[in-house]
Amino acid sequence: MQMNFHFESPNYWKKFWITFIAIIFMGVFLSFLIVCNWGTDPASFMNLNISSVLGCLLGTWQLGLNLVLLVIMFFCDKSLIGAGTILNMVLIGYTADFCHWLERISGFEAFVMASLPLRIGVFAVALILFVISAAVYMNTQMGLSPYDGLCKIITNKLYRLPFAPLRMAYDGLAVLIGVVAGTFFAEKMTGSAIGAVFMVFLLGPAISAIGKWMQKRFAIFREE
Predict the structure, then answer these.
(1) How far apart are CA 191 and CA 52, in angstroms?
(2) 4 near 149, Cβ under 8 Å?
(3) pLDDT tens, position by position, 197-214
């Protein structure tokens, strides 16, 4: 199987820039979810708590982990790797780190945390926009993130089992790792495990629904 770099495709560069922008937005809205501290997507929840234990940036830990997972993807299923894979593994964590730094030094984080209604509003808007950005990224079909790619590889190996419960178990394990890291090895847990568990059940169906809507209305998101 070849990697998913089809430069000759007429829509390749359009999809590339759509993917790039969507991933940047994912990092931006992830930073707002971090500010609210009510939980993020399962992968980010796990990585935030592990990076807290290690005392490094989210982007640095996420890049290191993704490089390991990328090697697994390369040897197990190269077709899952594309430009979106590389953009995802490099940009989301560092974008979130940079935006969160700006939110701290500007006083925005303290401002949000001082008002419960504002915190609820920021969390709800950031969650919706994060899901939409993720749906756009995933439906450009420019390659899976290493985290998603590993799940796809496991699913393909266990083809007799339905995808949905496997994905929930996979995401649930990520949340559990985050809880263990944040509870037993860090000074405090980053984000809420309740919020992360909620997203285990929310993100998949929401991204799928948005993706189907996009494919119906925009030809560029349909498979070629």
Answers:
(1) 11
(2) no
(3) 888 888 778 888 888 888
